## 1
Amino acid sequence: MDFENITPGASTPANWIESRNPAHWTEVIGRFPLSDASAVDAAVCAARAAYDSWRLTPAPRRAEVLYRAAERLSRDKEEFAQLMTREMGKVLIEARGDVQEGVDMLYFIAGEGRRLCGETVPSELMSKFAMSVRAPVGVCALVTPWNFPLAIPSWKIAPALVAGNTVVFKPAEDTPAVAHRFAQLLIDCGLPPGVLNVVHGDGSTGALIVNHPGIDLVSFTGSTDVGRLVAHACAESNKRLSLEMGGKNAIIVMEDADLSLAVDGAVWGAFGTSGQRCTAASRLIVHESVYKPFTDMLAARASALRVGDGLDEDSQVGPVINSAQLDRIHDYTQIGLADGAKLLCGGERVSKGSLADGWFYSPTVFADVAPGMRIAQEEIFGPTTCIIPATSLDNALEIANGVRYGLSSAIYTQNVNIAFRAMRDLSTGIVYVNASTIGAEVHLPFGGTRATGNGHREGGHVLDVFTEWKSLYIDFSGTLQRAQIDA
Ligand code: UN1
């Protein structure tokens, strides 16, 4: 594999990281150079050196690279999807969706190259012109998770580049292969040297990046605990920061809901990507009048899901990412039991036959869960969901909002008044009506409230992260005019 044009200073690394298949842990997907302090420095320097000429390249020209990348990625979608499934486990149909989300984002942001709109407004003074424009921020550090190894990098790389920034990209240590391949594709589509640089490693490499004085902006997606560390580092050095962190997303099922539709949404939201989405439906808040039929239907559906290698088109739930995560998920099963929740199905590792050398966990449903229990409050990031009874809409909304996260939520109801109350009163960044908590589209704002984020949004409005507003005043009066004084 050729690293030098993507990972500066990588020709002679002291250490390598290995990417392995979570469905068959003995299968090594690739070896990638572990970036130490000097490699991180080389990447930041390369990005800094490339910045001026990239910033001065007209935005429509910058966007053409992204447009070509969208075309190429669309053409190579199956190859990327297969690599993704092998590297992080999600079933093929979802891996294709992840790649498609990258294609969508590249097309969407390529269009922004001919917009990047500012505003012109009247000046309060005669013969004076006032406007605002978007300016790039500088060198951006983009730190991404493994669960959407192509989509999430595309959410950050595409807007950073179209706005004229250069990039140091650190993918999760579990998914370096997809990241490397994606960076290669972008470079092949015409990015000049140094505009996009990849560094590999775990949190210690991440710390080197976010503490590096040559970085102007950090965009991080990952856990709330790590995000807090990133925020501290950025506060120390005055870096601009966008955080997208955890979720504990709820689906509310009202008494008038189409129950079979609600069960479809709950199964998809809870067990899609083996529950490893920040938007996963990890709480199901169900009106007491439909609690019994909903619970029975859900448990039947969850226990019938086919767990297996994501490359097998028959599999519906792939492995989880690694053994540490498998242990963590199982620990939460024990916590749920100890706290008195009722385990309806799952709750164990699946290791029969060909699944023996992978990290598979059975779809797990807890019922009779109290809103304050740890399994109902903490992000598990696995195929575990819990059913919480509610007595009324008010009670359901209170439970839904009663967590520290605020990413996504959903309500199933046929009543327009209830739907509008939920849209108004659910305090998450994303609210779905009669659809699950997952499935955000790239051109709408993506992000959340409270411990989920720090007020920024990706997707639609992401340019607010990757640009600085600059106000421009042009006085063509030929005289001294004093704002606020010469009225
Ligand atoms: C994530 O879980 O980190 O809305 C991102 C969704 C996907 C993106 C999820 N489009 O579930």
## 2
Amino acid sequence: MHFDILTLFPEMFAPITSSIIGRACDKEILNFNFVNIRDYSLDKHKSTDDYSFGGGPGLVMSAQPIFDAMKAVNPKHKRVLYMSPRGRVIDLPKLKELSKEQNIVILCGHYEGVDQRVLDYWNAEEVSIGDYVLTGGELPAMVLIDSLARLIPGVLSNENGAMEESVYSGLLEFPQYTKPREYEGMEVPEVLLSGNHKKIDLWRFEQALILTKKQRPDIFDNYVKNHRDLTKDEQKVMEKVLRML
Ligand code: ADE
């Protein structure tokens, strides 16, 4: 999957060149082309923004540098996304849809946004990471890339990892423990040391249900309505959790 990332601050993207995403780049599963919008400014001061026609506070990113940066990445047959709090908030179905693309262009805005003609001409789809406003599109772009990368085969070492975790299974993830068995007087739950995998799976299912009911009642209600077939034992656990206050 190839990403062209148009930004005024390419250096902000250092975090996605390390760790799991960095390894996916080494394996050539992912590929990033960072384009500094300022390099395309024809202005003698390399300016990239100006006042908003009609007035109002803040500066707007000018069309010319972004247009020329866009032409350089040849987005004709590429999906163009613009990170913006005005966009539809990204969720799992959206990520799954985007994970099918081979080429994605991500435009990161700053200041009060970009000249609307950029978005209209390049058919840019506005996408948001949540109903709050950040100072620029770079952090949201990294959030998008990281969550998308996890869905691409070969990026995670365990292929099932992404789907089993958290919201992907329809429930929040159960609590996990590692060595030592006792830490600061706190013991690892006995059942996890029993070696009885059926019991362990049921305990984890129960914990996931309890946690989801407490922390995300919306997800819990959805799971109760739409869950896949449960075994008799799982059904009993579910009934027990439903009876809990
Ligand atoms: N730019 C500023 N805030 C944003 C948000 N919430 N999502 C995407 N891009 C943004």
